[in-house]
Design a protein that fits this description.
By secondary structure, this protein is mostly helical. Helix content is about 70%, strand content about 0%.
């Protein structure tokens, strides 16, 4: 399967990775990162693409090279391009797990590939400058969660619209009150509730976000969110 955006990215890499700019960047990376210097790559492709030498040839673990590149992400856009190329086997495997985008919200393989590359760049940008042990796992997991959340949101919206259409036909209300208005009225009498608890109820009960999705964006564990939600709803009904 040919993912156009990734193919184009690889072509850009081939054009720039042997340039004077790339060689200068390699020298600067080696000056900033001891692991890259110790690896001893003579060219940027040797560092990025063939960065997994047998143990007897290198004492630097592969993930340390990725971690060093991630720390220097903001040094040059070519560093980000290098990271995407380095992660491409994992990205292709992820594309397979998503059926190559044969499902909403992607219209086709090319649309999925563009979104995959865009999500990868966003994740790299958010983590750039930080030090992460075994970064490939962390980066790929965040990309997967981001794409999965997009797909779930579309499926949930479609199901809601279909169900809402049935309700409109069968249970039409001549004086409808929106869910948000009902929630606002209920919450207005609960002044002692914490703002974050009210937001949790709204996002879970009104927007329909699951606790794993909420945990991924808030940094709070699923268990903690479930306990907070139970306490908040008990207070709301008191």
């Amino acid at each position: 399967m040919n993912l156009t955006a990734i193919t184009e990215l690889r072509r850009d890499w081939e054009r720039t990775s042997h340039s004077t700019r790339a060689q200068t960047l390699l020298f600067e990376l080696a000056a900033r990162e001891p692991d890259i210097a110790a690896f001893g790559a003579k060219t940027l492709p040797e560092l990025v693409v063939t960065g997994e030498l047998p143990a007897e040839q290198s004492t630097i673990e592969s993930w340390r090279i990725t971690a060093a590149l991630l720390r220097q992400f903001h040094l040059d856009q070519l560093v980000g391009l290098s990271l995407i190329v380095r992660l491409s086997p994992g990205l292709i495997a992820m594309a397979r797990s998503f059926g190559w985008g044969r499902d909403a919200p992607w219209a086709d393989v090319d649309a999925f590939a563009c979104d995959l590359v865009h999500s990868t760049w966003e994740v790299l940008h958010s983590l750039g400058g930080s030090t992460i042990a075994y970064p490939e796992r962390t980066i790929l997991r965040r990309i997967y969660h981001q794409l999965h959340a997009q797909r779930r949101a579309v499926h949930r919206r479609s199901a809601y619209e279909e169900l809402a259409g049935e309700w409109t036909i069968e249970f039409a209300d001549p004086h409808p009150v929106s869910v948000l208005e009902e929630l606002a009225f209920a919450l207005s009498t609960k002044r002692k509730m914490r703002r974050q608890d009210l937001q949790l109820i709204y996002r879970h009960r009104v927007l329909g976000l699951t606790f794993p999705e909420l945990a991924a964006t808030s940094g709070v564990s699923v268990r903690a969110l479930e306990q907070r939600s139970s306490r908040a709803e008990a207070a709301l009904c008191a």
